[in-house]
C-alpha cells in the first residue's frame, strides 16, 4: 500500500530539461497567468494530457462504451467551462494548456476586475479575501466551474469588500 505521506506527483516533468524554445514558452505562460513556478504549469499540462489520453483511448473501445466515455468526458469539460456547450468530441483533442489556465481562480479574479494585476489576484486568494459560491478558497489553481463563475466575490469579512 505504501507510506501514506508519500503522495503521487500530479505532474510530469519535461523529458529534456534544457530546451530553449520550451523554456521560453513556459516563461511566457508563467508571466501571463501569474504562476508561482513551472511546476504549476506542468500540472496544468498534465491535466490536459490526461483528458486527451482518455479521449484517444475511448476511440479504441466498443462503440456503445466509446460513446458513453466520450459523453462523460464532454459533459465534465462543459461543466468546468473548458469547452462550449456546442462542442464536438474532436474539440477535446484540440484543447491547449491555455484553455485550462484560463479557468483557474487566479485568472478569473483578475479578469473580473477584483484585482489590478494577476499577481495581486494570487495574493488576494492566498490571503482568504476571495470566496466562490459562499466558500473561501485559498488555492489560486482552483479550477472554477462554469456555474460558479458568477459567484466570485470578496469574502464577507474581508476588508476589501
Report the mean per-residue pLDDT as an integer. Answer: 94
The unreliable regions are none
Quantity of strands, as a count: 3
How far apart lie the N and C ends?
47 Å
Number of helices: 7
Shape summary: globular
Physical arrangement of strands within the biggest beta sheet: 2-1-3
Tell me what you see in this structure.
This protein has about 160 residues and is mainly alpha-helical. The protein has two domains: about 20-95, no CATH class; about 105-155, RNA-binding S4 domain (Structural Genomics Hypothetical 15.5 Kd Protein In mrcA-pckA Intergenic Region, Chain A, Roll), CATH 3.10.290. The chain contains seven helices and three strands. The protein has helices at about 20-35, 40-60, 65-80, 90-95, 95-100, 105-110, 120-125; strands at about 130, 135, 150-155. The chain has a three-stranded antiparallel sheet. Strand 1 and strand 2 form a beta hairpin. The longest helix is centred in the first third of the chain and has 21 residues, at about 40-60. The mean pLDDT is about 95.
